[in-house]
Amino acid sequence: MSVNKEIKRVTTNTLQEMKQRGERISMLTAYDFSMATIVDAAGTDIILVGDSASNVMAGHETTLPITLDQMIYHASSVVRAAKRALVIVDLPFGSYQGNSKEALNSAIRIMKESGAHGVKIEGGVEISESVTRILTAGIPVMGHLGLTPQSIYKFGTYTVRAKEEAEAQKLREDAIKLQELGCFGIVLEKIPAQLAKEVAESVSIPIIGIGAGKYCDGQVLVIHDMLGLNKGFKPRFLRQYADLYTVMNDAIEKYISDVKSKDFPNEKEQY
Ligand code: KIV
To answer: Cβ distance 223 to 46 under 8 Å?
Structure first.
């Protein structure tokens, strides 16, 4: 891990210590160099190169189409920008479900070709063998439970998961299992806040929530959603911190108008 001398890199140990002293962990997605530079400089603890790139960068309806090569491309751009944050990369759909050897090979490609610091993988006890194999290679693994978007066609809907006791109980057991296997943290997506609280209190590794309420050890949002770039996407869990869609639209309209009116470029803006 090459680190700037003045900036201390966030590590999985840092996150563990943050949980122990009750300091909340901030996590945001980024998929390209320019955005990751801003996200990192602002002090975000973890940058997630999420497979949500499939939605927000490529315009797909689901996360399923994005490939391992595409994830590596996004991740390597983010790694070049991140001086402080821990960079975690999603194992995309189809890159780990076959068997644990395939999962390990995919994780190794991400680490070797992008320079990222760890991987995230969706699923519980059913992916134990893959998680173990990746961890054995020395690669930090983050779990992802609750609403796992790669299984959207099994769920059929993006609504809140684990409201029923059977699913909630499986989630509790999965979280314990992921901790036992050696995962350094778990993302819980779109589950009831009380269940997330129980899970966060039952494990010693950090629990990062998205739509999982205030008791998680940290929070993650998709950067395009929190900056208001995704016009019209306003689920209840999302706090929108800016309206960049409007800011960008206004700037672009002004530019077009300046070009059409021959105001741009002026004398000072030419050679
Ligand atoms: O892909 C992604 O952005 C994610 C977050 C929603 C946690 O997995």
So the answer is: no
